[in-house]
Amino acid sequence: MPSPLINSLVEALRILPGVGPKSAQRMAYYVLERNRKGGDKLAYALQQAIEKVGNCAKCRDLTEAEVCGICSSPRRLQHELCVVENPTDVTVIEQSGIFKGVYFVLMGHLSPIDGIGPQDLGLDILKARLVEGEITEVILATNPTVEGEATAHYIQQMAKDAGVAVSRLAQGIPMGGELEYIDSGTLSQAFAGRKTV
Amino acid sequence: MPSPLINSLVEALRILPGVGPKSAQRMAYYVLERNRKGGDKLAYALQQAIEKVGNCAKCRDLTEAEVCGICSSPRRLQHELCVVENPTDVTVIEQSGIFKGVYFVLMGHLSPIDGIGPQDLGLDILKARLVEGEITEVILATNPTVEGEATAHYIQQMAKDAGVAVSRLAQGIPMGGELEYIDSGTLSQAFAGRKTV
């Protein structure tokens, strides 16, 4: 018969992705029995991040500054723009260290069924940047899903209208992948995109 | 290249049991991108629970009241006392609805190696209650582990000294369990505790 406050804590923890009723209860008891200091820190970190983290004015990535670290860095190539769906995609590409340009984060993909149109993805901001003339190449790195492809197609048209070169990340068999386990969609992309060696 | 505030949020989330670096990052981005309201609620619930939830003066269970709902309920048998290790154990027994008495929550078990002695488990409070005379039976429901057994043995002695009857939860094959998959320890307990039918 847990107390109302413990109940609300368990309920509140369930908003986190991947946390069901059992793990929420385990987390609540863990914090209250063994790590109240850590719980306090978590509450503070949540409030601080929610209050202060907004979107970068240039690329829409999450940041507490007006313009994010990547957009304001003099060491990044400001004329190469990589368009991704989510902030996590930026993290993944940054970890690979392969890309030296800047990003534009859509925070989703076009999805008319959910009422998500170009405005919601900040495509007006992107258009203005493309027309401005600083960007010379747009690299489309949206997910290879139906919605991701549709979004990429839309941006491709936009960039062409503004006279900016567009490319799309190569699709094919992933490194270490075995043919036996590759789905037919990926396989047909790999055949279509084959290169003479 | 996430911002410092996002980094601290990811770090803070990792205190939760079962949350590794990847899920912490997923949770942080989920809250910031899609559910700031839920995040605010979580921060508030954490602070409220940490600030106000303490231990019941009678049974040591977690509660925001001076004495918990079970201890202060007139419908519970105040002379039957079930001793458990953790608040979660209380929840499990309450869900079964089998027990109508009151609890004593040790908040752990005797573990000299970790410096956890009788004082840390509130056994002085328990002793005082046993000597008082209101309790007529102590039901030991500590876990069937080495430490749980040692703790049960200690309390058993204490109750006997105070002239209070003591019992221990039956050990044996769980319902729906198949002999094939039962460990030998449980099996030997089941043989030792066999009943004539």
Automatic annotation (TrEMBL), chains A, B:
Pfam families: RecR_C, RecR_HhH, RecR_ZnF, Toprim_4
Zinc finger region(s), C4-type: 56-71
Keywords, ordered alphabetically: DNA damage, DNA recombination, DNA repair, Metal-binding, Zinc, Zinc-finger
Keyword check for Amino-acid biosynthesis: no
CDD domains in the record: TOPRIM_recR
UniProt domain Toprim: residue ranges: 79-174
GO molecular function, one term: zinc ion binding
The keyword rRNA-binding is assigned to this record: no
InterPro entries reported for this sequence: DNA_Rcmb_RecR (IPR000093), Rcmb_RecR (IPR023627), Rcmb_RecR_Znf (IPR015967), TOPRIM_dom (IPR006171), TOPRIM_RecR (IPR034137)
Database matches in PANTHER family: RECOMBINATION PROTEIN RECR
Family: Belongs to the RecR family.
Name of the protein this chain belongs to: Recombination protein RecR
